[in-house]
Amino acid sequence: MTGFFIKKAFFDGWDNLFSLAGLNLGYLAIFFLFAFLPLSAGVDNLLLFAATGVGILAFSLWHSLTSLSMAEVADYRTLGFKEVFARFPMAAIPGLAVGALNLLLWFAIVIAIPFYLMQKSFIGLFLASLLFWVCLVALIAEQYFLPLMARRRKGVISNAKASLTLFLDNIGFSFVLFFHTIFTLVISILLAFLAPGFSGVALSGQVAVKLLLKKYLWLESDGTKDRKRVPWKELLEEDQEMVGKRTLKGMI
């Protein structure tokens, strides 16, 4: 399943490259307004702190809108920008929820963990380590939240619990997705984050959840099935036909 996930995420992004670039302009605009301008203007620390907080919320809202839109791409449908903005009412609450979590993570990483490390004591080191692992788990589980909001159409709390469940039930793949995200952002530097960028990250999350949910639909169809022997070849057959036997050489 992992190999097909990487293949599908790549070719879905390639087939919708201009859509990815257009949505990435939104991320770049947010970075320009809430990071580049305040730093260039030399604002004081308090204003910079406030601008960063507002920027994180704006980023999270835009990422929510992008992720919900990328569900269409992962389902082999054409994405239009008119349809993207039509999803804003549906994306607002999940985006604010993600924004609140991202603010907490930012506070923990930038302020709380360094504070505990500065104590130079066993308790301080223990609390810093504990907080680090809590943040890491939250970051990895968060990858599933917005895709689940797009596909399950349930509430924030229900999908937050489902995100943690997906992480705990698929720890190996969750780390694959996490490092895939890091790799995606690193190679995005070469194209100034226009592609694949954060919209590519959103697309990868949608592809991952789309494929993972097939396992749970299969398990729900018969409670006696062995969850350790998932017939991925059978479950992914339709998607493999949709993606086709494509290669990098064939693209060129």
Written overview of the protein:
The structure is a single chain. The chain is mainly alpha-helical. It has one domain (2-251). The chain has twelve helices and no strands. The mean pLDDT is 95.
Describe this protein with a few key phrases.
mainly alpha; 252 residues; 12 helices
Characterize this entry briefly:
With 252 residues, this protein is mostly helical. It has helices at residues 2-15, 17-41, 45-74, 81-86, 88-118, 122-152, 156-169, 171-188, 197-221, 232-235, 237-243, 248-251. It has one domain.
Main sheet specs? none
Low-confidence stretches: none
Query: Would you list the SSEs in sequence order as H and E?
Result: HHHHHHHHHHHH
Structural class: mainly alpha
Computed Rg: 19 Å
In whole angstroms, the N-to-C terminal distance is 25 Å
- Helix coverage percent of residues? over 70%
How many separate domains?
1
Topology:
Elements: H1 2-15, H2 17-41, H3 45-74, H4 81-86, H5 88-118, H6 122-152, H7 156-169, H8 171-188, H9 197-221, H10 232-235, H11 237-243, H12 248-251
